[in-house]
């Protein structure tokens, strides 16, 4: 196994070295061999206020930025800089660079990069090295190798987190044709125990060694039925410095490949999915299992100790005018029953869209999320805590709907829209033996503390096509309630837009007024005014680049609501200049 991995890695380095010189040779001698792009920007923010003892921001801020990108045979070399009255920063690619040369069906990555093989093997971990992907015909061959972590010695002054130097190598081979396929993945990574000089005696960080093997498959059983799966085995030694006291009959072949000892563990992760597709419907049934403690050295974080069941049917009816989608699932943890608490989650969602005509659109969705946690009290011969009083149940429901109606004429287009959303969350604790799916077994005698939120928006718009003018009138109403406290927030909005100079420029302005009440007490009285302008002139020679000028201002007035408060006014003015080529 170790020899195969090293051979694969050497082959990958040879391909990377070859392509590092050839890059994308198809573009040699063409205008695409070298590309230079970039841009400059200048932004200012002016701020003024009246009514605050201390300003919330600087009265004037400006910053300039730019970027320059050289692409040589598909190798990108980016340069960026920023400068402002708050400081300056310059970056260049040789501090952290990733080159991606390619040639026909071969792609490579060189430098500080990352790859994704699968959720159970290598997933998004940055490494310094190289990776190659080859797709000859129906085959896919991927190789990677490099340093996944650099060594960081212990500093007693900073009390920093020490890290061992870690190198990893990977190989992934896949084949797919006519709906059938399979993949095999191998990944080996190990910490170098001698890469750091000093280790605190109480440190829990130990050098690790890891080997991951994964096999996946896909089969098109019928023209409508597809099955796919993946199984992964991660062999992980938590401390390669530990003495190997394992009996010979307790060791497997994997132990010899990962410096196996009594800290070595084997973890499993697997999933399977069955998908059935027809013209008017589809159904997906999925299952996933991840052992407690499952991890590899090819990723930063892995979900583990869980089991998922998912059912997701969807329907498309009446020539796709009506679409229904349902997704429901169940998840549980504590698979080994060694934790003090066991959590079970039920998730359900329904999405509906109905488009009976081009003028009318109706959409709606509903989701229900429930969590039940059963706590197991610690055993004590002199003290007992009833398990049923420690259990916890949480239910969250959310629903939303939208109706949009378009009408008018070719010259005057009109539309009306209504949006509504609702969310409720309830927490219960006490004598709950088994909550069941979405709390069907929860006693109605238990009293929780529900939180309810309602949001409503209504708008009406008119657009005069010939005049390139638009007008929108809208209103909103929000209501939040928890226990005996209710908050109301509502107000109207008016906004106008005008296109200028053959749509090269645009001007918009508007205002919003809102009042907020807590129960019957007025707590806020606010008006917002806004105006914005943008201009995109066309240069004589468009190859030179593109220029954009924009400015917008926002004036907020918060009126005093009693003798203990004062009027507050804040003005923000933004000016932006951009040039790109």
Shape: globular
Mean pLDDT: 85
Secondary structure: helix percent: under 10%
* Helix/strand order: HEEEEEEEEEEEEEEEEEEEEEEEEEEEE
Low-confidence residue ranges: 1-23, 89-95, 381-389
State Rg.
Answer: 31 Å
Percent strand: over 45%
Give a verbal description of the structure.
This protein is mainly beta. The chain contains one helix and 28 strands. The protein has a domain at 333-461. The chain has one helix at 2-22; strands at 34-50, 60-72, 75-84, 87-91, 98-99, 102-103, 106-113, 127-134, 139-149, 165-177, 180-192, 209-220, 225-237, 264-277, 281-290, 306-317, 322-333, 341-354, 360-375, 391-408, 412-430, 451-464, 469-482, 485-500, 505-518, 521-535, 546-558, 568-580. The chain has a 28-stranded antiparallel sheet that branches.
Please write out the topology.
Elements: H1 2-22, E1 34-50, E2 60-72, E3 75-84, E4 87-91, E5 98-99, E6 102-103, E7 106-113, E8 127-134, E9 139-149, E10 165-177, E11 180-192, E12 209-220, E13 225-237, E14 264-277, E15 281-290, E16 306-317, E17 322-333, E18 341-354, E19 360-375, E20 391-408, E21 412-430, E22 451-464, E23 469-482, E24 485-500, E25 505-518, E26 521-535, E27 546-558, E28 568-580
Antiparallel strand pairs: 1-2, 1-28, 2-3, 3-4, 5-7, 6-7, 7-8, 8-9, 9-10, 10-11, 11-12, 12-13, 13-14, 14-15, 15-16, 16-17, 17-18, 18-19, 19-20, 20-21, 21-22, 22-23, 23-24, 24-25, 25-26, 26-27, 27-28
